[in-house]
Design goal:
Mean pLDDT: 93
Number of strands: 9
Bound molecules: hypoxanthine
Low-confidence stretches: none
Distance between the termini: 25 Å
Length: 290
């Protein structure tokens, strides 16, 4: 069997031996948002190191665990700490948690991250809903023998970020009185921040925000047919725009500062996903599929 799939199945079986919770929404928490997982109605917690073969994040300040529970009655699984390509993992390992959450039942993937503002109309502290992405500068997680059980060899990428979820995010932001910008996210490998010319290049290519995660996760999730939405917290203007050096400390502080509003937006959006007809399958539909 394909070793990537074999590892995924091993992780899947390891999780379902320990956890019986079935999530509908998978939420990936970006920098600064880690505490959100402690504020939901927690049903179960599974540290990544309790999953055989699972990639464990090495970035300081990132807790590594799945939190299962409810956000206003919507069953969710939250990744408290994600895995980054710059940590040295294979891209297939970076997206393993995403694939795993789909296998556990999640139909929707809600991606969040901290990102640098490339669009000159943005400022630090803004939120940007991701409408499309550029992942061409990082290896595709789909390279290698295709795992037919997950999705097709050549997968369509016309609508990576689901239109109806985008509408939900817009409505949730409006309702919460939060300004939600929109734009294209570009992923680079990191871990160094971009050079000013790389930021200019990104702008020419049509990007509005730049980061080191997310796009590869969306590729893997799209391959599996998940509905995807994403929000970037613009923690800083990308390198070269403000003529001041960029530091991880600055990014972390800005992310922490934006967190309360970000959490409010996430809760509003997930709650709305639970109420909107046709976004999530009903328990009856789940039953019929068995
Ligand atoms: N570049 C890349 N990743 C980031 C940035 C940035 O400017 N800010 C937060 N994450």
């Amino acid at each position: 069997m394909n070793p990537v799939y074999e590892k995924l199945l091993r992780c899947f079986h390891c999780v379902i031996e320990q956890i019986s919770f079935v999530p509908k929404v998978a939420l990936v928490l970006g920098s600064g948002l880690g505490d959100y997982a402690d504020r939901i109605q927690v049903e179960a917690v599974l540290p990544y190191d309790k999953i055989e073969g699972f990639p464990v994040s090495t970035v300081s300040g990132h807790k590594g665990r799945f939190v299962f529970g409810y956000v206003n009655q919507v069953p969710v699984v939250i990744m408290q700490g994600r895995v980054h390509y710059y940590e040295g993992y294979e891209m297939t390992d970076v997206v393993l948690p995403i694939r795993l959450m789909k296998m556990l039942g999640a139909e929707i993937l809600f991606l969040t991250n901290a990102a640098g503002g490339v669009n000159l109309g943005f400022q630090a502290g803004d939120f940007m809903m991701i409408t499309d992405q550029i992942s061409s500068f990082v290896p595709s997680p789909l390279i290698g023998q295709n795992i037919e059980a997950l999705g097709p060899r050549f997968c369509d990428m016309s609508n990576i970020y689901d239109e109806s979820l985008q509408e939900i995010l817009r409505a949730s932001a409006r309702e919460a009185g939060i300004t939600l910008r929109e734009g294209v996210y570009i992923q680079f490998t990191g871990p160094a921040y971009e050079s000013p010319q790389e930021v200019r290049m990104s702008r020419i290519l049509g990007a509005d925000a730049v980061g080191m995660s997310t796009a590869c996760e969306a590729v893997a999730a799209n391959h599996m047919g998940m509905k995807i939405c994403g929000i970037s917290c613009i923690t800083n203007m990308a390198c070269g725009i403000l003529k001041q050096p960029l530091s991880h400390q600055e990014v972390k502080e800005a992310a922490d500062q934006a967190a309360p509003k970000f959490e409010q937006l996430i809760t509003a959006a997930i709650t709305r996903m639970g109420k909107e007809d046709g976004i999530l399958r009903s328990p009856e539909e789940d039953e019929n599929e068995k």
